[in-house]
Structures are given as structure tokens and as C-alpha cells.
Amino acid sequence: MKSVSQIRKRTALIFLIPVTIILLSSALYPLISTLYLSLTDAELENFLNPNYVGFINYIENYEGMWYGVLADSLFWNSVRNTLVFTIFSISLEVVLGISFALIMLIENKLKWFVRAAVLIPWAIPTIVSARMFEWMLQDQFGIFNYMLIGLGILEQGKAWTTDPQTSMIVIIIIDAWKTSPFVAILVYAGLKALPNEVLEAGKVDGTNGITQFYYIIFPLILPAIAVAIVFRGLDALRVFDLIYLINAGSKDIMSMTVYARREMFEYSHFGFGAAASTMLTLIIGVIAVIFIQRTRLHKLDEME
Amino acid sequence: MADINVNTVNKYFGDVHVIKDISLDIKSQSFTVLVGPSGCGKSTMLRMIAGLEDINSGTISIDGQVVNDLPPKQRNIAMVFQSYALYPHMTVFDNMAFGLKLEKRSKDEINERVNEAARILQIEDYLLRKPKQLSGGQRQRVAIGRAITRKPKVFLFDEPLSNLDAALRVQMRVELAKLHNELDATMIYVTHDQTEAMTLADDIVVLDTGIVSQKGSPLELYDKPNNMFVGGFIGSPKMNFMPSKILSKSADSTEVDLMGMSKISVPKLSASSSEGDAVTLGIRPEHLVVNGDADGSWESKVFVVEKLGDVTYLYLEKDGEPLVAETEGHSEIKVGDSVKVGFPAGRCQLFDSSNQAFK
Amino acid sequence: MKKIVLSLFASLTFIFSLNATAIELNFAQGGGSQGKMTMELTAEWEKKTGHKVNFLEMPASTSDQYVQYKTWLSAQNSDVDIYKVDNVWAGEFGTQLIDLKPFLDEQLEIMPNVLSAYTTAKGEIIGLPYSVGIPMLYYRTDLLEKYNRDVPETWDEMTETAQFIQDKERAAGNDKMWGFVWQGNAYEGLTCDALEWVASHGGGMIVEKDGTISINNANAAAALDMAAKWVGTISPEGVIGYKEEDARGIWDQGNAVFMRNWPYAWSLSNKDESSVKGKFDVVQLPRGPNGKSTSTMGGWGYAVSKYSEKQEVAVDLVKFLSNRDAQHATIAEYSMPPVYIEIYDNKEHAETYTLLPLLKGPSQALLPRPSAQTSGKWPQVTVAFYTAAHEVITGKKDGATAVAELETALKKIKGKGW
Amino acid sequence: MNKLYDKIFKYGLQIIVIIFCVFPFYYAVMTSLEGSAAVFVPNFFPTEINPKNYIYLLFEHNFPNTILNSLFVAIVTVSISITISYFAAWSLSRVNFQGRSMFLFVILAISMFPQIAVLTGMYQLFLNFKEFYFNIFDLRVKGITSLLWLCFTYTMFNIPFTVWVLTTFMKGVPKEIEEAAIVDGASSFLILRKIFLPIMTPAIFTTAIMAMIAVWNEFLFALTFTATNSDRTITVGIALINGTVEYEVPWGSIMAASVIVTVPLVIITLLLQGRIMSGLTAGSIKG
């Protein structure tokens, strides 16, 4: 006979077996093979039987010139782009997501429309929304330029997605449009889980909307926001399809993943690309650890 | 029906030693209240009896059977939680029937038992409602009802009334007492409220940082606290404590000096103390004599007067030592008045330097 | 569930209906009319031989196809026997596809300049082309007539005419009119356009046949500078983001005097809903001061995987699909520029495919991108080249700086050799 | 007066949100209804209503099949990952055992790896899996193999997210409710089935919808692992839409396909909205 908590511990471990099996069998192998690949000279021809070459894909001095991922200014350029993209798109998404969530709380005849509408940007596959925005932002027959010209803001259509000055901003806005519903839904769920009294209490105290939100609601939905930020942040740091679909060839918006993909699949530098992927993972890992420490998200998994 | 024996039980949370070598005997059909300030380990004790927490060492037995490794359902207990812990998606009926369904009782029996419990608790009209449609008091009744239907040998209550407002709390308290009489079950009740403890308990167990400070009937605790902690914890307003010194010892009493104001010969003894020792004199507000004859007396100024109707509390002070005294409800004494306070020797308690009471 | 049952059933019936001699091929190719054409021809071949072909439809985007092929080939996938290949993939996939040279016969006298794109540095022919892409200058016959202008032969003439007509048309109230639209996005299309400018200025072909990097020269710099001047004058600012369809969109609205585009636009712009139907013609692309008219070669061919277990049959099908007879049989319906020179002169075909005779000149000016000589490194070369060109047309750098830096970059890419 | 102002303000906010979210989709619908030339003219309302793009996709193209494939993959993936994660979430949120935080962190770490980097590794694994699978069943059920493999891959990518979100949600359920059930005699499995499942339903639906959208929208792996027309999924299906001639981008058909792809998701979310939006907890949990 076992005590309840012993039985529970045993049950808990049994319940974790499927997750562990799936993650071990399917995640670990590709991870290790990527790590290994990054230490080889794998190219298209010898992909299945590459030679071990050590760390030269990371850095190598050959006849006085530095080679390797770490010596490639384009890589660091893509790191910078990715960080800029992540910081701005996440900030915008959190602000929009929380605003949407609060607006979704309004109870009136339009509420179902709002709740349905918020889901639409997110339900549209990226491959489609990228095309849609590309289309809407086209300089000559895009509706966006048409509107701006009509309003007298622009004289001539602008190529928003390719202009080096605007392409990053455009990408950030499209991404925010597409993914703020994700934040909105998590925050909305968090808001709905709050006791009604919390919202009521704020009203009785006569606190106005913003202070009520800041002092009462915000701290309570912080866990939901933190989870949303972590997963959105991980996605943003690995951003690929949007940038690839809108403007794959541009240096101005090239992200780390686009860089790694290009090395692997366009240049067939599988070893080099794997090294870039490994670096990318390291960078993401460091950022994630710092973020989790700072936001004390790891406290979320402590028993109260 | 069920004796409960707790034998040298220890419990650690990580490095924190929350229950220290506790031994307790709880008599069958008694109403025992575990009382103490928050963090004293009373809830943990209850949860160990329930089987929700593991025991690190020692044994707990119910009816002579060691239950350390028995899951709650085999201990024949039921528990009522402070937060009610009703299943939000089930009706009141289903909430109360859930345990019985798990025991695979027949439909008729379930119906009968739930209706019986509902009748006792006067919640028959709400059986088909969901918890969120009920008031706090009604939810608490459902939570109790859920315990009753299972006809357990032992009822465990974890601060069941602390989420209710004052009036409701008094009412529920009476009903719980009635329930205890009706059900003839062993009840263990955890609270931090000494009034609840005093009114409900056959036996009170006062816990202090993981140890049993004193166990006894309410009046035993009230009249003969074992130590300063119990003396201070039981009774409201709190017992007054004042520093004093032993002047002399005799066969049946100890003469102490009361802050140089007067001498009192308290009929209490302690073998371990000797003349000149610093001790603490304790006396309850209701035992102080205001403007009347008593063994020792003082002059003091009144700086707060609390009129409660039936009684009046006077907040006094002497040389930095606060003192609360009770007097009649319609007292004429005002703030700023000087009153004479008397210390009847027979009502005084003495505590030695390790806070243990003189016998 | 139903699906599982159905496919289980389907595969069971399939297993039992297998006959001993019939061979099943898997054929990766695109959709659209090219795909339809291939499928029709293949159906004939199936009837003739009794073999069976499964088509694996590839994404429309060339780079998506490319990634999928690469994944398959790097994993040495034997499931796919035949690939439809772009003419610039010879260097890249050269070692993964079989050499078709031994199978060439008199039925396959493909134009040498076209075939050279499918020839690796080692001289192996890894694909047989079935159609060729020929960029041309589209011009508005009505506007040139209205302003009494000749069809331009040099870039300067074209620029001047474009500016003149654009100004006049705008003055007349048509404020959306542009002189020249082309492909300026940072992508493979810009490589095609820029190679034409450079080569037609006598600036070489980036990397010459023998592997020397030739891009750092004054002619090339001048060619790029010329294009940079178009942006914002005769071409919209947005041209730096244009692909083929963006240019055609403006053209079809009647808002451009000249357009650089592939033959596909001919049929689309001659449709009823196009505003320029019957008002335009095509001509060889203009030339620069020191060079001759050049068209960057496009087009597709068929190739057989080295990992195929049915190479012999696959080669038979590829030969069947790209021979003369096949081209004759399909040209009327599919209007694709053929790979045999004499077909351009065929009067009969010219009746149904009116563009055909006009294509002969440009077909001789075709220049393959230097993908064969740069072998596996072509993808890096083209990215470096179009990035440099894009930097010039967006005004970040001038032509001379860009080509000098490009030379350094290409040397680094070349490393110990192509 | 103040009340009216408040009302108008709220409606205003809602309308802004609706326009912001829906306009691009509306524009796609409009484009999908226009003929090929009208597409190149910017306007806010369709100049013609022409269903030819839809007719083409639904009756002359392989598109309906890709929808079925995507549905199959989405349903299998979401059911498996939600079921597995639901039980794992209980372990991770309710039971105190050593290495629990570590486990959560490792799960998160796995989701840090760029998917593009594991593509080739996954593909090799896929080939082995195919061989293994064929050896066992000796049947060339290719389509199902690819789809099953997609399900497996997506489950792997979804699990970090679903585990984390469900764990967070489950922490929100007061532990007393579970203890009450333990005292009532319920086993952990029974508690998960009879007590937590109804309470967690909104959270589970929310998570499931999120996972479903992720699966529905995935392109890269679907492109790599499926090759035949019979086993393509919708995003790949959209990428397969060719113009009649090379270089032509058939905007109308692509937009029509996008609308067809998006509508089922919107319908599903609308149907489940009641559950998703009813709030995560109710009744006594809210106190």
C-alpha cells in the first residue's frame, strides 16, 4: 500500500512517458544530427557521408582571411535584424494583444463579431497573408498606396516591402497584424479567469480605466502575458516564412533562420548552415534564459 | 466510533520542520479543535490525518489501524475545505453524490443519503443549482453536505467558516455544534479563531510552531493555561501580562512584587523558581477589579474606553505597560479619568522565565 | 479512417494488378500549361510502351521546387526518377543527375547555345531542354506611332523615347504613364535583367566560360549606372520591388511604353481583358554602346536522377518528351518557344503562334547565366550579383564601387576554385 | 449623455478592431471574385462577382483533397498532442517531484531549435521510418505514410506549446478541488476525467485551436514530406497553384484558395467560441 503522494508521483511519471518518448525520439535525433553536421564538410554530394572537419564552419583562418559563421558579417547582420524584429514585433503584439483582449471583453451586440474578427488574421496561413500584404502594398495597384494617394499623403506609390527604409517596419507590422490575436486570446483567457470581484473592485474604488488596469488587472494576467511572450518570442527569433515570402533576397530584413536556410538549401553548405543553426539556437537559448530569469517566469512552475 | 492516535509524528517541507514530534489522542465522537496562529502546522496536521500529506516519521492510526500509507478513501474520513472546493461543473446534488457514486452505491441509496443531508442542512431547494448560483453560506452548506452523505467515521474541517461574514459565521457555528450532536461522529476542526475553538470544542489542541502547546477542554485552557502562549492565545481580549519578581515563597503561595506598586500573594507554586526570579504575572481583563476591593491595587489613567453594551473595556497604562480591564456595560468612566485597578490573587497566573505556568 | 481504408484498398488492388513488364516511373514537375503539355505527351508514351508514370506536382515557385529537389537528392531518394529542371541547375545538381550525352542522336539536335546551359563544367549534359525562355522588349505600337518614334535599338534610344512619350502622355492627363517597366526586385529575375544590361554593354557575363571573374569593368559599371538612372525617371520608384507580374500588371493597364519580359506576357496581354490587346509588339532587347543585344536565357528541361532504379526507361521518356516530333506536336496548342532552330521558321506554326517568327532573332541572342562554369556555387554567385545590382539601382552604391566589391565577394566565393 | 458617449466609444473601438483584423481578408475575398484583369485595379468593392476561381479550385483542381488531408493531419495531431499534454500538464502542475522544473525547461529548449535546421534530419528519419513501415506492412501506402509522418512531426513541434499552456492553465485550478475529489475517493485518472476535464474544457479548446492553426498553416515540412498529389496539404496546395503559363501569378485563384482555407478555421472557432470564450473557470473557482 502506498500513500497518496507516492501514488501521485508514480502516476505523474507515467503520464510524462509519452511526452518524453516523442521528444526524445523525434527531437533529439535531428538536434544531435544538426550538431554533428555542423562539424562536417557536408555538401549536396557527400551529404550522407560527410567528413569531420572540426570547428572550421564556425571559424577558420585560411591564408590570412577569416572564414566561418562567426566571421561572416552577413550572419551578424541577420542577428541584428532578428533582434530588431523580435523586440519591436513582440512589443507591438503585446500592446495590440492586450488592447484586443480588453475590447473583446466589451459586452454588447458586436461582441461576437469582435471575437470572430480577432481570430481571422491568425487563422490565415502565413503563406497567404504574406501574399495578401505583398499585393495590398504593391506600389502601382496596391490598395494601400491607392488610399494614401487618395488621402493626399503620398504623391506616388511606394514599394513598401522592398524599400530598405520601410521593409523592416512593414514586416514588423504584418507580423503584429498576424500574431497579436495569439496574444489576445491568451490574455483574454487570463482575463476571463480573473474573479469578477477584481474587475468590480476596481470600479468601486473609482480608479479610472488605465490605473485600474495597471495596478489591478495587469499583475494578475502577467503569467498569461509571460507565456505568450515566451512562445511568441521564440517564434519571432526563428522568424522565417514571412520574411522569406515577402522578400527572401533582401539583406535589410534577412533573419537568422533565413540566413541558415539559405546556406543549407540554396548554397548546399549543409555543414555551414548547421553551424549557423547551432549558433542561432545558442543565441535564442541565451536570450530565453535571460528573459525567463528576469521575468521570474521560472517561478511559475514552483508550487505555491 | 473512531479513536485517532497520533504518535510522535514529524513532518518536513524541504528543510522546514513543520510538525515536531507531535503525539495526540483524539477520542471517538469528540469534537476536537486544532487551534493556533497561521503557520503553526495545524492545517498540515489535519491534512496528514486526511492522507493528503505524507508523514515523515511516526504513525497516525484511526481505530487502532495505522493509516500512514492508506489513501484518504480508505480512511473513512470526509473533509470540508475553507474554499468549499465544490466541483464547479456539477449541480449541488452531483457534488454531494460524487463520493457515493465512486463507492458504487445504488441510485436509491444515493438519492436517500443526499436528500437526508440536504434536509439536515436545509438546502433541499438548491439541489439542481450549480455552485456559482449559490451564496457563500449556501456553498459552505453544500461542502458540509458533501461530507455528510458519505457517513464517515471522522469529519475533518479546515477553517470552514473563515470565508463567511461574521453573522453567518456565528450561525454556522451553532449549526455545526448541532450537527455534531446529531451525527455522533469524530470531528477534527482547524481554525485560527479561538472563539470558534472555545464554542465548538470538546477538546482544544493549541499548536505553536509545530508542537502541542496544550491540550484540554476549553475551560481547562482558559483557567489553567500551561504556558504564556496558551494564556495569551485563549480568551479575548488577550490576557494582560506584566513583569514582576518573586519576593518570597510559601507552602501554598508565591508572593510577587507588582512593578513596585504592590505585593500580591498568588496561590500558585513552581518548584523550579526561587526568590528574586523575574516572572510574568498574567490576568484576564474580565478578572481585574475596577474601583473595588481586591488584593493588590493600582491607580491608572484611562486612555481609551470601548463600550460594547454588555461590557466596557478600559485601556489603561502604567509605566509603559498596557493593561486592559473589563467593567460593567454602563460604566460612567471616561477617557482621562483615573481608576483604581485591583488584582484578585486567586485569578492571577504566574509564568516563569521559560514561559511555563506556575501550578 | 475512411481515407486509410480507401488507400489500403487502392494499394491492395494495385499490388494485384501489377504486371511483370510494366515499369512505374515517378516524375517531379510543375503544373500549369507546361505540366499539362508534359502529361499529354507522357500519356502517348505510356500507350506506346505500356509503362506507367506518376506525376509529383511541384510548387509553382522555382525556389520551393529547388529546396524539395535538394532535400530529395541529398537524401539519395530513389523514389523520384525524372525531374523537371531549370536551366541554371546544371552546376548545382550536376553530380546528382545522370549524363545524357551518350543518348543524344540526330533527333536531338538542340540549339547549341541552349544545350550549353545544361552542360556541366565536366562536359556532361544533365538535362534535355524542351522549352526556352527568351526575354524581349515589349513596346506599344500605338504610342510609338502617335509620337512618330522608331523602335529603339539601343538603351539610350529606348530611354530617350520612353522619357519623351511618358512626358507627353502625362501632360495629356495620363498621369499614371511610365516609360519602362522591368524586374528590379532582389531575386533571380534581377540577375537576368542585369546580366542583359552588362552583357549588352560589352561587360561580359560575370564569370566567363573559363571561370575568370570578369565583372569588375567599366562597361559593367556603366550598365548598372544606366539602370539606376531609370528608377524614378522612366520607371516607377517601386520597380526595385517588381517581379514579372508587377511589370505586366502595369503594362496590361496600358500604363507603360516599354516592358522587359518573357514570352508568357504575349498571350496574356493579348487577351480580351487586357487594355493593350493588339496595341503592342515585341523586339530584341536594346544594346549598349560597346555590345550587342543580349537576352538572358530561361527555360526548362528534363533530367534523370542518379538514384533512380529505372534509369533506362526514364531516359527513354525524357528523349521522347524533348525530341523534334514532340515540339511540333505541341507548339500549336502550348505556344512555347522551341529548342530546335528550324521550328522558328515553320510557316504553319507561325499561323497559330504569331510570336514564333519574332522570337528567332532573340533566340540567337540568348545568353545562359554562368551557372555551368560556377558549378555548385552558382546560387551564391547569383545572390551576390543581384544584391550588388540592387544596391546600385536603389542608389546605395555607384556602379564602379558595386562591381569592384562584387569582384572581391566572388573571389571569396570561388575560393580554391569553382 | 455620459452613458451614450461611453457606448459610442465602445462601439468605435470594436469597429476599429474589426476593420483592422478583417480588411485584408475582405480584400482577399474581393480579389478572389474578380477576373484576372480587374485584379490589377485597386478598389474597395468588387467590380464583378465571378465565381470562376472557386469553381476551378473546387471542381477542376486537386484542392478539395488537400483540405481533407489537412483536416486529417490537424485532427490527428491535435488530438494526440492535446491528450498527451493534458496528462503531462497534470504531472507538471500538480505533482511535486524532483526535476520538474528541469523537465519544463528542456521542453522549452526543444522548441528553441529552428525547425529549418532539423528539416534534413527529420527527412532522413522519415526515410528510415518509411522503410521500417513498409517492411512491417509490406504495403506501399505512401500517402498515409507521409501524412502520418507529418502528424508525428507536428505533434513534436506542438507539444512544447501545448504542455506549457495547459500546465499554466491547470495551475489556475485550485488544488482544494482536486483534494476534495481525492478525499471523495477518486483516482488521479478519474480526477482528470471527471473533475478537471469539464473545468479545463475552455482551456483545452483554446489550446487545441491554437495548435490546430499552427498545423493548418505549416508549409515547409508539409512540402518536404509529401510528394504526391494525393497527400499534399492545403498550404502546399496553395503553393501548387500555377498560372496557366510560367511567371503568371494567378492572384484570383490564390486568394480564392486562401478564402477556402481560412473559412473552415473561422467556422470551427466560431462554433467553439462559446466554449473558448466562456471563461476558463466558473462557479466556485471564482469564489
Characterise this structure.
- The complex is a heterotetramer of chains A (about 300), B (about 350), C (about 425) and D (about 290).
- Chain A has about 300 residues and is mainly alpha-helical.
- Helices cover about 70% and strands about 0% of the residues of chain A.
- Chain A has two domains: about 35 residues, no CATH class; about 240 residues, MetI-like fold (Orthogonal Bundle).
- In chain A, strands 1-2 form a two-stranded antiparallel sheet.
- In chain A, a hairpin with a 2-residue loop joins strand 1 and strand 2.
- Chain B folds into two domains: about 230 residues, 3-Layer(aba) Sandwich (Rossmann fold), CATH 3.40.50; about 110 residues, OB fold (Dihydrolipoamide Acetyltransferase, E2P).
- Chain B has eight helices and 20 strands.
- Chain D is mostly helical and about 290 residues long.
- Chain D folds into two domains: about 50 residues, no CATH class; about 220 residues, MetI-like (MetI-like fold, Orthogonal Bundle).
- Helix content of chain D is about 75%, strand content about 0%.
- The longest helix of chain D is centred in the N-terminal third of the chain and has 32 residues.
- Classes of the chains: A mainly alpha (about 300), B alpha+beta (about 350), C alpha/beta (about 425), D mainly alpha (about 290).
- Chains in contact: A-B, A-C, A-D, B-D, C-D.
- At the A-D interface, helix 1, helix 2, helix 3, helix 4 and helix 5 of A face helix 1, helix 3, helix 4, helix 5 and helix 6 of D.
